[in-house]
Amino acid sequence: MTDIKACIFDLDGVIVDTAVYHYKAWKRLANELGFDFTEEQNEQLKGVSRVRSLQLILGWGGVTKTEAEQTELATRKNDWYVDMINQMTPAEILPGALDFLEACRAAGLKTALGSASKNSMTILNKVGIAHLFDTIVDGNHVSAPKPDPEVFLKGAEALGVSPTECVVFEDAIAGVQAAKNGGMKAVGIGSPETLSQADLVVSGLDKMTIEKLKEL
Ligand code: G6P
Ligand code: MG
């Protein structure tokens, strides 16, 4: 048993299901550019930064754009995405997420958000859970994208705990790798086949308990 002192949570796909909004907005952009992409391809965008996601999508469509054009396209996509997340309500918190966050805090564990999204504060405020995090590190604070551990290491530092005392909750392969690269434990949210590098995989935070945390 490790001495766990903090839990660091990814946002998209762990606490809320915003992947569907990202998909809709990217699909609309691709369609405007004259091509389409599949939900399977969309899986590859999980945990991936906005700019890198755009580059992958343009590659799938065989489309080349200048840097200035890419900036405009990413902004266009984000405007549509922000319109959608502005409609979010607390009902969109994924099953078990609220209970587990509260259980962590009741058990004396520190909590952090570690997300690649630059929209994380908007989402947290819309679903009403910003107050459940001791620190929030997101796409506005980091320069190296997951699987680089920067986002999680900054979270640990802000909480005043060492990486080995942290457990990261992640639904993306790159996110699980980032946790492991940072010397942290990783709980995968999703399928064990996809998230094979995680120390434990559960289908959702509704399947997570403080007991399971202590066994890691
Ligand atoms: C998360 C999502 C990605 C998204 C990234 C950046 O990691 O899983 O799909 O591209 O955040 O989000 P943003 O809101 O800044 O465009
Ligand atoms: Mg995610």
Topology diagram in text:
Layout: E1 6-9, H1 19-32, H2 39-43, H3 50-60, H4 67-85, H5 97-106, E2 110-114, H6 120-127, E3 135-137, H7 150-159, E4 166-170, H8 173-181, E5 185-189, E6 200-202, H9 210-214
Parallel strand pairs: 1-2, 1-4, 2-3, 4-5, 5-6
Helix pairs in contact: 1-4, 3-4
Bound molecules: 6-O-phosphono-alpha-D-glucopyranose and magnesium ion.
6-O-phosphono-alpha-D-glucopyranose (G6P) is lined by residues 12, 22, 45-50, 53, 78, 115-119, 139.
- CATH top level label of the largest domain: Alpha Beta
Q: Under CATH, the topology of the largest domain is which?
A: Rossmann fold
Structural class by SSE content:
alpha/beta
Radius of gyration, in angstroms, nearest whole number:
17 Å
Which small compounds were modeled alongside the protein? 6-O-phosphono-alpha-D-glucopyranose, magnesium ion
Beta-strand fraction estimate: 5-15%
With helices defined by DSSP (H or I, 4 residues minimum), what is the helix count?
A: 9
Give the biggest beta sheet. 6 strands, parallel
The CATH superfamily of the largest domain turns out to be HAD superfamily/HAD-like
